Amino acid sequence: MEGRMPETPALGLDGLVGGLREVYRSGRTRELAWRRSQLKGLISLLTEKEEDIFDALREDLGKHRTEAFRDEVGVLVKSVKNTLQNLEKWAAPEKAPTPLVSFPATALVVPEPLGVVLIFSCWNLPLGLALEPLSGALAAGNAVVLKPSELAPSTAAFLAANIPRYLDSEAVKVVLGAPEVGEKLMEHRWDKVLFTGGARVGRIIMTKAAKHLTPVALELGSKCPCIVDWLDSKRDSQIAVNRIIGAKWSTCAGQACIAIDYILVEEQFAPILIELLKSTIKRFFSKPEDMARILNEKHFNRLSGLLKDHNVSCSVVHGGGMDPKTLSIEPTILLNPSLDSDIMREEIFGPLLPIITVKKIEDSIEFLNSKPKPLAIYAFTRNEALKQRIIKETSSGSVTFNDAIVQYGLESIPFGGVGQSGFGQYHGKYSFEMFSHKKAVLKRSLLIEFMFRYPPWDDRKLGLLRHVFRYDYVSLFLTLLGLRR
Fold first, then answer.
1. Catalytic residue from among 219, 266, 330, 347
2. The pTM is what?
């Protein structure tokens, strides 16, 4: 099924982009009424076509409808409703303070749409990573081209068929096709490009964007670590394990940029953690359909290859079973694979979970700082001092304590990477701001004029300027009145 979807004819790309610019220049996308109508259209699409969405995600990734609702449909409806509720406030000009020397004057920060923007979404959350940024771009008043991933063809076809029915088909376009189509899109000038995917393609996007000085936001993957500072309470330990499993195996079988990539734990607690993981995995995944499958044969072979290294295969302590016919891989736990192995150098993006032991949990901070900055750091701990050290001494897109992945569903905090895990932040108000320009507006009166701003220069004017830049307005006025030299 991979790649078997209709492509947008290359012949139409020039006209498509030009048509979007005409729509944007008409001014209709700037109107709040239009923006509200688009957000309401997204909510209608998600609620009325829920079963079709479930079917598409099942075909592309083998996702159970409950997982699909939790990670893509439900969280999206919640997010778009939040945007709709707050749109007027976000779009309103914001007053800014002005110094007394500029009196009488007013200053404003006015959010304005960027123009015509391009969004590349990826295959692992093919609905959520398409419509979440799209909602922000529409809320900000832009015209948009959405390029879904060709690796999730059923979801891409669903978006192409339904977005024109629920949104303004002249202002929002879905372009289908292989990577070559994406490259052709990048030959055009955009007012912003958001790309979600891997670093290799991200570099290509940035290189092509440089031709037109197009601003780019990149949402890339990384090896997201999870620190487990052992919890004394049996209940707390079980909850931690539940959440670790949820963030590794019950989210697209670990094929998510914010999934836990590996665990750091003190060596004395590793056996206890492994046994608890094993027993809970058995309860959670008693049926094959409870876990999504691997995307395609290529990705299946990549994951299989990670385990073929002798230094890795001998460290498997649970799972390891694979079925190439169904593209399924068991939840697999590895203990202390070689740090030089591919599985510890590359982002895993699958249901393989290495556990790395340290002498004491504080050593995990030095371990993290020896690696590239991740998209997320997770830590299960009651130790407030350790929490503060993680916040202050490490760098990552986000830090979540005593849970994992749930930060993605919060509209109140930004989502995005840092360093090699990407740049640019979105979700909620941050999506609106990503696709907006904050325009500075200053309005002054002609009533008062300060001539010391202008030549000819002398020491008196220099003194007055010193008062201005020190905000010493008392001295300034006394000097202007001739009461102070």
1. 219
2. 0.92
